[in-house]
Each structure stands twice: as structure tokens, then as C-alpha cells.
Design brief:
This protein is an alpha+beta fold. The protein is built from five helices and three strands, in the order ααβββααα. A three-stranded mixed beta sheet has the order 1-3-2. The longest helix is centred in the first third of the chain and has 22 residues.
């Protein structure tokens, strides 16, 4: 997968900084303790330059909170939520297009601090 190293790195950066922002903004009451990134089975360690392991039975990965989907730069690539419940209740998922993580400079120019966008 072209761009997999960049996608993984940018997701890690977004969550690491986002965790610090949450921790600071909420006086230490919230942060991301653990984030599991599940990648497609055809992504290789060599291509992605990351250690990729098969999730074990106790790894919470069968349902996701954030989904990264293929998309095209020309199409609207706005991150969005799937929300079928009442206002103020947790939504089903947050969706980002893959290009959000591979065109990082464009993403930051359009959206500003991506970590703040994540924790908003």
C-alpha cells in the first residue's frame, strides 16, 4: 500500500498530541490510554516501515470508532461522524478519507491542528 507509512505515522501523531490536549484541557481527567491501529492484511512491515502484528483475541479491534476509507483528493474529504442517536450521545464512528493522512500539508492548511480537530 503506497502511503501506509505516512498514514500510520500521522495517525500516531494525531492521537499522541490529541491525548496531551485532552489531558491539559480537562485537568488530567481524560486522555487516550491506548490506541489500536488495525491495518489491511495486505499492508506489509517492509512497505509500511512499522511493526505489524496480527491482533490477538483480547485486542479490541472488531468494532471501530474511527474508520479511514479510500477517497480522492478532488472529492470532498471532510472528516465526518455517523450519528444516529440524540444530540449529546456517542456517535457510531468518525470517518476520515485516506487522503486526509497522506496529504498532510494540505490537511493542516485546510483544517489547522489535526489533533484539536480529533478531540473537538
Amino acid at each position: 500500500q503506497d502511503g501506509c507509512q505516512e498514514i500510520i505515522s500521522n495517525i500516531q501523531s494525531m492521537f499522541t498530541e490529541g491525548s496531551s490536549i485532552l489531558h491539559s484541557a480537562l485537568s488530567g481527567r481524560a486522555y487516550f490510554n491506548q490506541v489500536t491501529i488495525v491495518v489491511p492484511p495486505f499492508w506489509s512491515e517492509a512497505k509500511c516501515n512499522n511493526s505489524i502484528t496480527t491482533p490477538t483475541g483480547n485486542t479490541p479491534y472488531k468494532s471501530w470508532s474511527i474508520l479511514i476509507v479510500p477517497g480522492h483528493v478532488v472529492q470532498d474529504s471532510s472528516p465526518h461522524t455517523v450519528q444516529s442517536k440524540q444530540c449529546g450521545e456517542q456517535g457510531e464512528e468518525i470517518i476520515f478519507q485516506q487522503h486526509f493522512f497522506t496529504a498532510w500539508n494540505t490537511t493542516k492548511t485546510r483544517w489547522g491542528n489535526t489533533s484539536k480537530l480529533l478531540v473537538k
